[in-house]
């Protein structure tokens, strides 16, 4: 997954976190309300996910039947929208890593 430095313009975008040595993707709907200020902080979460991923298609094919993804629920306007992010699937790939992009 391509990432860059988080700026004030990116405060609501996704980031990457490490949980027990596994790279995970974190989006704002997954953050409890009491931690939103931390999530939006450029000091606490310094990485911004650009939503670009590079994948090895053979690796995806090998894991296709076992890939699990988290469902993100968004409440609003009388409907519940269910979605999942492509970045959320990186947890299924133990060798996933962040490719840092220097953006000038």
UniProtKB/TrEMBL annotation:
Pfam families: UDPGP. GO terms for molecular function: UTP:glucose-1-phosphate uridylyltransferase activity. One of its GO terms (biological process) is UDP-alpha-D-glucose metabolic process. Its EC number is 2.7.7.9. The keyword Oxidoreductase does not apply. It catalyses: alpha-D-glucose 1-phosphate + UTP + H(+) = UDP-alpha-D-glucose + diphosphate. Homooctamer. UTP--glucose-1-phosphate uridylyltransferase catalyzing the conversion of glucose-1-phosphate into UDP-glucose, a crucial precursor for the production of glycogen. Belongs to the UDPGP type 1 family. This is UTP--glucose-1-phosphate uridylyltransferase. It comes from Oesophagostomum dentatum. The lineage of its organism: Eukaryota, Metazoa, Ecdysozoa, Nematoda, Chromadorea.
């Amino acid at each position: 997954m391509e990432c860059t430095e988080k700026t004030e313009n990116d405060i609501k975008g996704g980031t990457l976190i490490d949980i027990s040595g596994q790279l995970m993707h974190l989006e704002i709907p997954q953050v409890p309300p009491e931690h939103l200020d931390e999530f939006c902080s450029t000091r606490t979460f310094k990485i911004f996910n650009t939503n670009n991923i590079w994948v090895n298609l053979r690796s995806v094919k090998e894991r296709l039947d076992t890939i699990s993804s988290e469902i993100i629920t968004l409440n609003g306007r009388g409907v519940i929208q269910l979605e999942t992010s492509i970045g959320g699937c990186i947890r299924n790939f133990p060798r996933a890593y962040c490719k840092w992009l220097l953006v000038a």
